[in-house]
Amino acid sequence: MSGPVQQEAIPWWQKYGARGVGCGGGVIALCLGVFNCITIYPLCIVAGIWQMLAAFIVISAEAPCCCMFVEFVQRYSSWVEARPHWQKAGFYVIIALPAIIMCPGLSTIFGSGCILLCGILYGLMALGKKGSRADMMVVAQTSSISGKTLVEAEQPPASA
């Protein structure tokens, strides 16, 4: 595929798997963010607040039924659903990293790691399906490195 991966081309189990990781990981990150705020280190308190905010953003995007009491969540969820997978992946990875950087403890690594995993799954969905073996062989034979094809470059040099 030369263009961006169509969202319809993604298998249903992969799409719902990423949503499930986002929803479940968001709940875990929210709970661990509260736990992370119970400390005497100011940076860890800020990291816990950041983690709870990131968890709310992910939960409201992936499972808007969990946040029905907030008015704008339905519009926000529809807007996020219309975005390409690579944008969701980048956003989730970016919002997961600051808490891990600020306070690298078990609760932040595991909580924000769940959000990070959701971003990685969306990134894999953005890459799309791997080509068939025949397609990969054609690409390997036509690519050249220093005048040789990849298959020729892997052969041992001929002895003289």
TrEMBL record:
Superkingdom field: Eukaryota
* GO-annotated cellular components: presynaptic membrane; synaptic vesicle membrane
Q: Which UniProt keywords apply?
A: Calcium, Calcium channel, Calcium transport, Cell projection, Cytoplasmic vesicle, Ion channel, Ion transport, Membrane, Transmembrane, Transmembrane helix, Transport
GO terms of molecular function: calcium channel activity
Tell me the compartments it is located in: Cytoplasmic vesicle, Secretory vesicle, Synaptic vesicle membrane; Presynaptic cell membrane
Q: What residues form the membrane-spanning segments?
A: 21-43, 49-73, 85-102
Question: What's its membrane topology?
Answer: Multi-pass membrane protein
> What main location does UniProt list?
membrane
GO BP: vesicle-mediated transport
PANTHER family, alphabetically? CALCIUM CHANNEL FLOWER HOMOLOG
What protein family does this chain belong to?
Belongs to the calcium channel flower family.
Partners and quaternary state? Homomultimer. Associates with the dally/ magu complex.
Question: Protein name, please?
Answer: Calcium channel flower
Task: Report the source organism.
Answer: Halocaridina rubra (Hawaiian red shrimp)
Q: Which gene produces this protein?
A: CACFD1
